[in-house]
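ok new one. same drill as before - structure tokens go in, u give me an amino acid for every spot. 378 of them this time. try not to just spam alanines like last time pls lmao
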């Protein structure tokens, strides 16, 4: 089959959970099928090239500065991406799988599918209600337009891949038939992770890795690390990533006089180097108030690093059950307890649940999905 992935961001040129999943899926499918990937052209990407058997086509230059405005996804960038997806009409595909966000590109792809008998599959990691649109966009008119467009456009697909049971339930609530929804999140490659699994022994670093955006609540993260450091001498904090909130985060660190305690490191492109860095830490603290499945959480647990989450975490139950969920007030003490321990991995619960997220099941899953999408199973 000829399969097209469509997403405004592509891993590893842009580091994100959904992008990492799309890359893993594309790599596995490319072993059997012809796979193309359409995305914006991020720094380090050529205009057209092949990588791991995936044929990449870029649709206009972008960067973190253009991608985000005022700490939020840029509407201008979303419009530019939607318009540029018209380039897909130069090709013929059996299936298009696209990231649901930034939503505005979905009608273009729906038109393509109608004209050429292609099937449209949406990757869905979050479903926003009107209140969230209002909170996210601030401008009431833009919030109304965003919510209305999402309600209409999201219903245009032939099938949906939800990253968790929570996301699937939200899709059903907005009117998507359960028969069209599959829950699948292939994130972990055990064979690649094994060499980097953390060795037991006392370590002193609390880590965060991911995008530096408001929803990740690095302001709360910094204060929690500060309190933990007061309880455990020698405790340190490490932030790995970049994003529109980097200047603000550096300002908070300076204000709290934590420059010698908390360090910020730029994103690590090589996954092996990232895993080695994470494996040298004691615990992942993830204070995010908006999250899909939580790639950072799953990979940390797979590496033997326990994860502490706040009680308000939106991370779904199947992942949350492997973590330590604490009230904001009790988080510093829990961090201190882990830092004092010689066996950090004992704080990981239900580790056997990781088997649900292994990439080895990708081709089996897609065979079933493609069979359902073909008329009469052909």
């Amino acid at each position: 089959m000829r399969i097209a992935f469509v997403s405004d961001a592509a891993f590893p040129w842009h580091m994100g959970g959904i992008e990492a999943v799309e890359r893993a899926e594309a790599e596995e499918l490319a072993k059997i099928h012809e796979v193309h990937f359409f995305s914006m052209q991020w720094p380090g990407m050529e205009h057209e090239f092949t990588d791991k058997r995936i044929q990449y086509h870029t649709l206009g230059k972008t960067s973190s500065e253009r991608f985000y405005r005022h700490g939020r996804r840029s509407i201008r960038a979303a419009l530019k991406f939607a318009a540029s997806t018209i380039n897909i009409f130069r090709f013929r595909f059996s299936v298009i799988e696209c990231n649901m966000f930034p939503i505005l590109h979905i009608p273009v792809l729906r038109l393509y599918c109608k004209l050429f008998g292609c099937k449209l599959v949406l990757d869905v990691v979050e479903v926003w209600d009107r209140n969230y649109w209002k909170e996210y966009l601030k401008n009431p008119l833009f919030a109304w337009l965003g919510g209305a467009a999402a309600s209409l456009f999201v219903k245009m697909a032939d099938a949906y891949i939800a990253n968790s049971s929570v996301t699937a339930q939200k899709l059903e609530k907005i009117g998507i038939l359960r028969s069209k929804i599959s829950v699948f999140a292939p994130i972990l490659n055990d064979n690649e992770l094994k060499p980097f699994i953390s060795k037991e022994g006392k370590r002193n670093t609390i880590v965060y890795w991911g995008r530096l955006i408001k929803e990740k609540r690095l302001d709360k993260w910094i204060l929690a690390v500060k309190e933990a450091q007061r309880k455990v001498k020698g405790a340190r904090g490490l932030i790995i990533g970049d994003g529109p909130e980097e200047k603000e985060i550096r300002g908070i660190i300076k204000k709290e006089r934590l420059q010698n305690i908390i360090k910020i490191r730029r994103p690590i492109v090589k996954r092996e180097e990232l895993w080695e860095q994470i494996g040298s830490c004691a615990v992942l603290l993830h204070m995010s108030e908006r999250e899909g499945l939580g790639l950072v959480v799953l990979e940390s647990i797979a590496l033997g690093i326990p994860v502490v989450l706040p009680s308000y975490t939106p991370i779904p139950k199947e992942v949350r059950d492997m973590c330590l969920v604490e009230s904001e007030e009790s988080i510093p003490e829990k961090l201190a307890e882990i830092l004092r321990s010689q066996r950090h991995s004992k704080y990981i619960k239900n580790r056997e649940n990781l088997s649900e997220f292994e990439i080895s099941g990708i081709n089996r899953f897609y065979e079933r999905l493609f069979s359902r999408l073909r008329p009469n199973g052909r």
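The chain has a mean pLDDT of 92. and btw The chain has two domains: 2-186+358-377, 190-356.
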